Amino acid sequence: MGSWASFVTARERCRWRGVIPAASVLRLSSGRGGRMTSEMESSLEVSFSSSCAVSGASGCLPPARSRIFKIIVIGDSNVGKTCLTYRFCAGRFPDRTEATIGVDFRERAVDIDGERIKIQLWDTAGQERFRKSMVQHYYRNVHAVVFVYDMTNMASFHSLPAWIEECKQHLLANDIPRILVGNKCDLRSAIQVPTDLAQKFADTHSMPLFETSAKNPNDNDHVEAIFMTLAHKLKSHKPLMLSQLPDNRISLKPETKPAVTCWC
Ligand SMILES: Nc1nc2c(ncn2[C@@H]2O[C@H](COP(=O)(O)OP(=O)(O)OP(=O)(O)O)[C@@H](O)[C@H]2O)c(=O)[nH]1
């Protein structure tokens, strides 16, 4: 682990309506229509227990209140959104993946400057048919956006303006931090998107560019850096926050001061 590792204390081992493993995933699908939609609406308000709380009245103190950053990861199907989010939350490349239906979300708790913060990654479906009824929920109360393209697939790069446009249509604030990630840099001989082209695009849209691989074991620090960069940025902004209450419910509350966001 490189320097970014110092920011990370522990994998989140929370339990969400029962047992969810360290790289917690709650899958919400659009396939069941309104029922899932309304579940998703309240998904951030459901019981959310830490391992301490699960032990009940065993004498341990209530869990500390912690802020949650909701970060959505968007881009074409197959660019590697699931693999990137899994890599960050579980620390490894997944054994197998399937097309995401609706949204999966994964969480990891990190320590930033002494504050325990939960990074909640929303791994959204890239395929239109698996996302259309869910889109408005992705963007609700979002703190940051990660745009992903596949470096070996020019079409996924050309789709970025459409993803940015979708974002514009749904985000309340234009100044929400965004980053651009080119994935699959391990497939060197198949690269179609040159770095200078991607950098120009990133500059035009005022986003930092990261090229990485969710698969290459040597790139773990880079995947780490991508999400930790956002977490640091968000922590310093203190925008509208989800926070975990001592009784394990999640509340949404505005900061006392209006958020001033500057991603530069
Ligand atoms: N070589 C290589 N393959 C990768 C990398 N990241 C993902 N893949 C592969 O790319 C395919 C798609 O990965 P996913 O993470 O499922 O893609 P996705 O963007 O989540 O796709 P949707 O769920 O359909 O939106 C899988 O076969 C992965 O194994 C990478 O960094 N390098």
From TrEMBL:
<dbReference type="InterPro" id="IPR005225">
    <property type="entry name" value="Small_GTP-bd"/>
</dbReference>
<protein>
    <recommendedName>
        <fullName>small monomeric GTPase</fullName>
        <ecNumber>3.6.5.2</ecNumber>
    </recommendedName>
</protein>
<dbReference type="GO" id="GO:0005525">
    <property type="term" value="F:GTP binding"/>
</dbReference>
<dbReference type="InterPro" id="IPR041822">
    <property type="entry name" value="Rab33A/B"/>
</dbReference>
<keyword id="KW-0449">Lipoprotein</keyword>
<dbReference type="GO" id="GO:0003925">
    <property type="term" value="F:G protein activity"/>
</dbReference>
<dbReference type="InterPro" id="IPR027417">
    <property type="entry name" value="P-loop_NTPase"/>
</dbReference>
<keyword id="KW-0547">Nucleotide-binding</keyword>
<comment type="similarity">
    <text>Belongs to the small GTPase superfamily. Rab family.</text>
</comment>
<dbReference type="GO" id="GO:0005794">
    <property type="term" value="C:Golgi apparatus"/>
</dbReference>
<dbReference type="InterPro" id="IPR001806">
    <property type="entry name" value="Small_GTPase"/>
</dbReference>
<dbReference type="Pfam" id="PF00071">
    <property type="entry name" value="Ras"/>
</dbReference>
<keyword id="KW-0342">GTP-binding</keyword>
<keyword id="KW-0472">Membrane</keyword>
<dbReference type="GO" id="GO:0032482">
    <property type="term" value="P:Rab protein signal transduction"/>
</dbReference>
<keyword id="KW-0378">Hydrolase</keyword>
<keyword id="KW-0636">Prenylation</keyword>
<keyword id="KW-0488">Methylation</keyword>
